[in-house]
Amino acid sequence: MLILQAIAPGPAHGHTIANVIEHRSEDVLLVEHGSLYPALHRLEDRGWIASFWGTSENNRKARYYRLTATGRKQLCVETSRWERVVRAVNQVLRPAEE
Amino acid sequence: MSWIRFLRRRHWDEERSKEIEGYLEIETADNIARGMTPGDAADAARRKFGNTTLIREEIYRMNTVTWLESIGQDLRHDLRTMLANPGFSLIAILSLALGIGANTAIFQLLNAVRLRSLPVRNPHELAQIKIVGGNHGMGLNDGPDFDITRPMWEEIRRDHSPFSGVFAWGQKNVAVGEGKDFQEVPGIVVSGDFFRVLGVEPWRGRLLAPEDEHSCPESTAVVGYAFWESKLGGREIDSNTKLFLDGQFKQIVGVTPPSFFGLAVGERFDIALPECMPKQLSRNVFEESVMGRLKPGWTLATASAQLEGMSAGIMAATEITGYDSSTVQRYRQFKLAAYPASNGVSDLRRAYDSSLTLLMAITGLVLLIACANLANLMLARASTREREIAVRLALGAARTRVLRQLMVESSLLAVIGAAAGIGLAQLLSRALVLSLSNEGDSITLSAGIDWRVLLFAAGVATLTCVVFGMAPSLRASNADPVTAMKSGGRGMTTGRERFSFQRAMVVTQISVSLVLLVGALLFVRSFHNLVTFNPGMREEGITLAFIGFQKSNISHDHLEGLKRELVDEVRSIPGVLNVATTTHVPLIGGSWGHQITIGKMEGGAHFTWASPEYFETMGIPLVSGRGFTDTDTMASQRVAVVNQTFVRRFLNGIDPIGQTLRTHPEPGYPSTIYQIVGVMADSKYENLRDETTPFVIAPSTQFPDQRPNTAMMIHSGLPAAVIADSVKHSLGEKHPEIVVYATSFQTRIRNGLLRDRLMAMLSGFFGLLAALLGMLGLYGVISYLVTQRRNEIGIRIALGANRGQVVRMVMREAGLLLAIGVMIGSGLSLVAGRTAESLLFGLKSSDPLTLGCAIGLLVGVGVLASFIPAQRASKLDPMTALRSD
Questions:
Q1: What phi and psi, each to the nearest 5 degrees, are found at residue B697?
Q2: For a Cys staple, B255 with which of A52, B228, B436, B873, CB 3.0–4.6 Å?
Q3: How many degrees, rounded to 5, is the angle at CA B876 between CA B870 and CA B877?
């Protein structure tokens, strides 16, 4: 879901995606960048993202990923489900606020 | 989806590694930009990324099917091992190919003869209508599958409620062409509904239908595919397609499809003629095979019940005529029933069924021995590879993985062996079919590959693979890496238990090869008995000639005169010692019998009408009384010479000369009183295997049913081929219209022994092969044993054991294996021999001499096979033995 969200604005390559996730989460979700790639592979396999070879900002060959139509739908589904879960958890944790 | 992924796994691996490289480059560049040195930058990038190889593997695993991938690896590894060790692989594959090939070949024949269904629509619905228990030799017979008379068929056709359709068919040779182009081809005669009920579609033109049936003589015919191809050149069938058949031109209306060989398995037909019903139907000629297609809902049992109920009516309406009342009474008792007919009818099946089953068992046992050999070989090899396996286990390979690799290796051998075996089987089965045919009758059998054969070969291959691969693999994967690595290669005596499997295998081999050897000897001796058997008459130096003078236009009364004339002409040929005519040729199959009454006794006896020279020509001695003379004519008292069995059976204690016997009436053969004038020695009649039966010879001059043909027995010192030529030549010159067919009497008798020769040859071959394999196994195990105990033997010799003691020690081991094997084998042979009893001639299956010979042979070769390694052991130099490894 995070990866899908990261490339939602437009195509990006692996390095960018890793950095984006790292920065947006304010370095909370710090993982080995390498483990991103199996995940990318799986997503591509499911047809949620598609990839093509392109040239990076500093003129290097890099593989770019973009969301497919199914991927976009999946992102909505996942996001709403995640939000439901978060809301539920929050309600359990802080019932007094209501 | 997953398969595409699987096939593209290498592509994706490359893509991802490029991508990962790309990441590292970008990150390195970023790091340099942040002010790191290039080396630190690359290291930092790699740290940030994690383990590249692990990640690549993770992605790769997503794409692949693990077990398939590793089997692929095993296959590659095993192929490399096999190529590295070509001798072993070749022996293994060759012995498997031989074993599987022999099994598949025999199975192909068995399949073609017994299992395969007829090439017609829904063959399982077909049923044959037969007389329960056959017709007991009543009237004239055309073999056990053709036991319905024309009038009976008419009755069945009128009312056949269990069947949606019925048809009748018979076999006869059809004369094609005339003059130089004349030839006889196999034909079938079919009722109108034959092709429709069978559901055979025409290949060209149309097939015979009911409208063809009523014209007599028939004017239309259908040809078989092979005949159409070869004789008609595959031309289109039109109204000008005519053939000169049985003396007149007939319209050819169509061609049957290539797959349709008729209903007799092992035979074929070239011409199919429609049945034509003459006004007067003979009621005593049993020549039709009647079949029907069961209506839905009817079974063989219900149809049989229905037929049984109808039988009395049918028999009463078609009552046999010209016979005495007891025969007619028996005829009325006949019951009809339905029998399965989906596999067609077959004389071949009757003759070879038990032989083929037995051969199947024999080849199966040979394969078993070959498997045991292979297992021992693999086992011996597995112990040399013990260290390799131990290393792999120590490095963390799972036992199942090692087991699988070894199983893959044996499967690889089995699969290659099976493929080669199937190829080999094609040659073998073809050779077998050829060897079953002889000049007289050829066999048309397509022993091709079908799903049953492939399934069988695959099954056999799997089984062998399990048998010879399982034990060594289990053993190897159970090895404890620590001990294996410690003791591997050290020639210490290993535990007894380790060897027990190999010992058991050798004992099995020895006992099974003894069984096969006994079988082989039994069949070879039985064949020898048949060939050297004295049938009570001369076999050698006799030329057999069948002479036909249908076209001579001689009146019935002068036929006997013409025969005498021909006999005189043949006698004057140089080299001919004696000539006789006869109505029946003994020992080549076929029989001719009459019911007789003598005094108060009644029974059956075989009859032959022969010329006076017959006894001398055939070397049948007269025990008492006289033979025939020229004074025995149609006008004088009917006389007969009977054999000793006849006297024992009908005239116990009475002087036979002067007694009279009366034949029961049959159409063409009125009841006649014969006076016995002589007694001849017993001789065989129909074939060598028969019990000697009561037999009567009467003079040919008194034969009641003279016909324009005769059989001639010619005795000469010259080869049969020479005599046959001179007879044809000299008779052809004077009587160009006469047809002569001449051949060697002995060859004809031997042709009848084909099955025995085949069994002797094949079982002999397989028996020797089995013994050879068994001995190889024994040799291998003893050699292996000696190698394993090299150190121990070396120590013994060093401590003062002499050569003899060492040899004795090894031989004791071998002797024990041999003794146990022979003991089990003898027991098995006695049990297994019983299945072959009916195929043997002149000896029992428990023949002690045969068993003794087989044991002697096996023990002799076995001792020799184990003596070689024992000798080698005793020559061991203790120094080298102890120093090596």
A1: -115, 130
A2: B228
A3: 170
Q: Quickly state the pLDDT bin for B188 (edges 50, 70, 90).
A: very high
Locate tokens 């991508």: which residue? Answer: B19
Average pLDDT, chain B: 85
Q: What is the pLDDT of residues B617-653, one digit of tens each?
A: 999 999 999 999 988 888 899 999 999 999 999 988 7
From the list A33, A35, A58, which residue is nearest B23 (CB)? A33
Question: Do the beta carbons of residue B406 and residue B477 sit within 8 Å?
Answer: yes
Strand order in the sheet with A12-13: A12-13, A61-67, A49-55
Q: Alpha-carbon distance B96 to B568, whole Å?
A: 63
Q: How far apart are CA B851 and CA B514, in angstroms?
A: 9
Q: Which of B12, B15, B52 sits opposite A34 (nearest CB)?
A: B52
Q: Look at residue B398 and tell me whether its pLDDT is greater than 50.
A: yes
For A37, which residue in chain B has the nearest alpha carbon?
B55
| Residue whose structure tokens are 């010329």 | B611
Residue numbers in A near B49 (CB within 8 A)? 32-34
Most confident of A75-84, A87-96, B240-249, B818-827: B818-827
- Structural domain tally of chain A? 1
Three-class secondary structure assignment of B759-799: HHHHHHHHHHHHHHHHHHHHHHHHHHHHHHCHHHHHHHHHC
The residue extents of the domains of chain B are 2-64, 93-116+348-489, 123-342, 492-533+746-885, 550-737
Q: Which of B12, B18, B48 sits opposite A33 (nearest CB)?
A: B48
The parent domain of residue A22 ranges over 2-97
Pairing state of beta strands B271-274 and B183-190? parallel
Local structure of residue B734 (DSSP, 8 states): H
Q: Is the pLDDT of residue B1 over 60?
A: no
Of chain A residues 17-76, which have a CB less than 8 A from chain B?
18, 32-35, 37-38, 41-42, 45, 56, 58, 60-63
Task: Provide the 3-class DSSP secondary structure of residue B884.
Answer: coil
- Specify the amino acid at residue B196: R
Amino acid making up residue B563 = K
Tokens of B765: 């071959």
- CATH code of residue A17: 1.10.10.10
Distance CA(B44)–CA(B35), nearest Å, equals 12
Of B832, B843, B837, give the one whose Cα is nearest residue B770.
B832
B254's enclosing H/E stretch is strand B248-255
CA nearest B60 in A: which residue? A38
Rounded distance between C-alpha atoms, residue B506 and residue B510, angstroms: 6
Closest CA to B512 of B409, B415, B370, B407: B370
The answer to whether residues B193 and B165 touch, using CB atoms and an 8 Å cutoff, is: yes
Q: Are B78 and B409 in contact (CB under 8 A)?
A: yes
* CA distances in angstroms from B607 to A74, B46, B638, B692, B834, listed in the order given: 99, 107, 14, 13, 35
In A, which residues are within 8 Å of B5 by CB distance?
Answer: 45
C-beta neighbour count of B437 within 10 angstroms: 14
Instruction: Tell me if residue B858 falls in helix, strand or coil.
Output: helix
Buried/exposed A18-47: b ≥16 CB within 10 Å, e otherwise: bbbbbeeeeeeeeeebbebbbebbebbbee
Residue B12 to residue A42, Cβ atoms within 8 A: no
Rounded CA separation A89/A73 (Å): 24
Q: Are strands B248-255 and B242-245 parallel, antiparallel or unpaired?
A: antiparallel
Burial of residue B486, with CB atoms counted within 10 A of its CB: 0-12 exposed, 13-18 middle, 19 or more buried: exposed
* Residue B130: exposure state from Cβ atoms within 10 A (0-12, 13-18, ≥19): buried
